[in-house]
Amino acid sequence: MDVPCVRVRPTAGEGTRRELAALDLIADEYEITVEDGWLYIPVVAEPEGYDVVAHDVPPREGQTLPDDILGFAPRYERLGDIAILEEDSAERAREIADALVASDLPVESVVNRASKVKGDIRVRDWDVLAGSTRTVHREYGFEYELDLARVYFSPRLATERHRVVEQVEAGERAFDMFAGVGPFAIPFAARGAEVVGTDLNEVAIDYLRRNAARNGVSDRVTAIAGDVREVEGYDDWADRVVMNLPHSACEFLDAAVALAGDDCTLHYYDIQHEEDPFGPGERAIREAAGSDYEVAVETRREVRSYAPHELNVCLDVRLTRRR
């Protein structure tokens, strides 16, 4: 079965395997294989900085997979010990859920998406087919306790989050405007940054505080429940600002510019038509910065396909205050 694999020469295999294991990225249900002078290590997400290819690797010997029970390979995402389905048929969803629970995969709960993300606090409705919506998700060596029914979290963005985290340096002051349970804030703090995270969702902020303690960075994380536009005391403060609210981040650009210090990197997430995915965001940032800042777009990145002809993108933008 073709799955994403990190490809390395066998001489580098054990070191690479240890690195990927420390980041909780190895797909344990598949065998590590050697073919044509290459070692293929199956992974659950595509890490930056590695040669990642799709390769046909066998299931781990002795494991019963849902494919064995169903006779077909079901589509699902893993978040901690939760398997997430997106099935229109309730009967098919139930069949897949039963197979997932009966398999040897580390799955305790199965949920099926019952709505789109909705409301200001960005939560979904779920049909719980087994277990519950609560879990602990591990990502790049960090642990996040969360409840899918009460907070927003996307495992699909793990690689993108890690890309941004790798840019953070000790001593920075970083502000996550829509922090959720902390997948940006906590790794930032672990790299030595002083971090402020805000969110409208009070439950998410509670999880952010708990996850900061869980990962040993409570002393460097300040969590604030509320609208970031109403938070006081951080004007001209930030060296780095994350704006991961792609449907409406443009509405918060004035607040982001107010937070920015003399030299600030802005990570601006947007969803736009594929014909011009970066232009609207760049124009909005330049308008918000006005004459106060020089604006330099350092990275234009397509994060993923969001819908037909629509892209989820990120602009890494450096704001430098004019003297």
UniProtKB/TrEMBL annotation:
PROSITE patterns: SAM_MT_TRM5_TYW2. GO terms for molecular function: methyltransferase activity. GO terms for biological process: tRNA methylation. Residues 76-321 form the SAM-dependent methyltransferase TRM5/TYW2-type domain. The keyword Ligase does not apply. Signal peptide: none annotated. It comes from the Archaea. Pfam families: TRM5-TYW2_MTfase, Trm5_N, TYW2_N_2. This is Class I SAM-dependent methyltransferase. Keywords: Cytoplasm, Methyltransferase, S-adenosyl-L-methionine, Transferase, tRNA processing. InterPro entries: MeTrfase_TRM5/TYW2, SAM-dependent_MTases_sf, TRM5-TYW2-like_MTfase, TRM5/TYW2-like_N, Trm5a/b_N.
